[in-house]
Amino acid sequence: MQTIGHFINGQAINEESQTQPIYNPSTGEVSKQVALGGEKTIAEAVAAAEAAFPSWSRTPPVKRARIMFKFKELLEKNADEICRLIGEEHGKIVHDAAGELQRGIENVEYACGAPELLKGEHSRNVATNIDSWSEFHPLGVVAGITPFNFPVMVPLWMFPMAIVCGNTFVLKPSERDPSSTLFIAQLLKEAGLPDGVINVVNGGKEAVDAILHHPDVKAVSFVGSTPIAEYIYTTAAAQGKRCQALGGAKNHAIVMPDADLDNVVTSLLGAAFGSSGERCMALSVAVAVGDEIADKMVAALQPAIQELKFGVHSDKNNDFGPVITEAHKSKILGYIKSAAEQGAELVIDGSNASPEGYEQGFFVGPTLIDHVTKQMHSYEAEIFGPVLQVIRVQTMAEAIQLINDHEYGNGTCIYTRDGEAARHFVDNIEVGMVGVNIPLPVPVASQSFGGWKRSLFGDLAMYGPDGVRFFTKRKTITQRWPSAVLREEKQFSMPT
After folding, report:
1. How would you class 141 by CB atoms within 10 Å of its CB: exposed for 0-12, middle for 13-18, buried for 19 or more?
2. 342: domain range?
3. How much of the chain, in percent, has pLDDT values that exceed 90?
């Protein structure tokens, strides 16, 4: 059976005795093994990155960008293989995997603008014959810890920007679906990236802790659940490291009485059930303002949901696939059961999903739950599965308050034809990424991705302008050249 190892200093490494099975979630069978690196492996990766840093940091940004241009070409050339690897280990349908890859490529394209992004600021004559300017310098060795749900896109949020800014990188992907992540990192070598600039170590908590406590790692970027994000942030900060840690979500969609119901239904299908709901931007709660629109929405959703197709990743006709593990499936089913026990109405129950030929796969069918209240466990938690919950409120103010009271503040949207209502919503909602008739308001690569409240720990969001600032440090130079003609007297007060 194939064992997935590490990539350190330009070489494939597989020296770990400890391994963990990788499942094909569509079949429920073990497909590969992954080597679990620990403190020793992380130390080797950091040492390789540290050795590569002096030369790479001095490489002109335009030359770094040229490698990224080549990397983009290789990602596009190998798209089918990348999507296959994502599907086999995550279960994501091939068209969904292609969308994930494309959003990642867009971040590579943005990183190709490194010469522009790294320009400093210059001010002439800030005082008499004194000029001042700022420069952006790389941090050194930086690290990324990425989740299972986007094994390609999220790493592409991190390392292209970090690398074009002159840093070297150590990546710890999810041990549940590491093959696609390892594959794209190896493409960087083919693109001409010097050995040691990118390193990949597979592993679990031991590897994470080794990164957090290694003195030569200057910054850590993380995407995952909120409890882990908080742990990552507090531990990294205690070690004096720069850290951005993106956590969980409970994304609401307010459905106003004047909303275009056809648009609401079609967009909710993709936003709630796409990628089996395993997205931090999934719309998992529809907040209907008034019983009339709620009844109409639920009635319209029922036949549309029943027409959804789910199954193996390789079938393009499927809308979504399995969830990542048997344990995660059980967790989702527990939330569905608890909602019913606490008084919610199971309009459509996907608990017994079993696609023909894939009965042992980790499948949960699309589930619709009505009359949910904010006191229910299923509402409080991030279910992270193909489950759409409906909450009924009587006013827009009540809907906004409901969202603002939740501990998460990642993404949200409003469905309405009323511009005044939309503006009021945008101005008053305490959420980092907001959509108006847009169910998944994920910022494009030239902006930045990040939530509010307990969805983000740290001051800077992911990729875009915030990504540049996160992976660089500012140096300000103030300069004067003394003149033989102009000599100043001694000064003991602050010059102006």
Report:
1. buried
2. 251-436
3. 95
Q: Is 280 a catalytic residue?
A: yes
> What CATH number should be reported for the domain holding residue 28?
3.40.605.10
Residues 6 or more apart whose CB falls under 8 angstroms from that of 134 comprise 120, 121, 122, 474, 475, 476, 477
Residues 284, 185 share a domain: no
Identify the pLDDT of residue 488. 64
How far is 6 from 295, CA to CA, in rounded Å? 53
Tell me whether residue 272 is in a domain. yes
pTM beyond 0.90, yes or no: yes
Judge if 228 and 302 occupy the same domain: no
Residues 192 and 294 in one domain: no
Per-residue confidence (pLDDT) for residue 151, from 0 to 100: 98
Helix axes 79-90, 61-77, angle to 10 degrees: 70
The residue from 83, 112, 165, 280 that is catalytic is 280
DSSP track, 9-25:
TTEEE---S-EEEEEET
Largest CA distance in the chain: 90
Single-letter amino acid code for the residue at 48 = A
Secondary structure E strands in 25-70? 29-35
| Residue 291 within any structural domain of the chain | yes
- Distance between CA atoms of residues 140 and 411, nearest Å: 32
- Domain co-membership, 231 together with 342: no
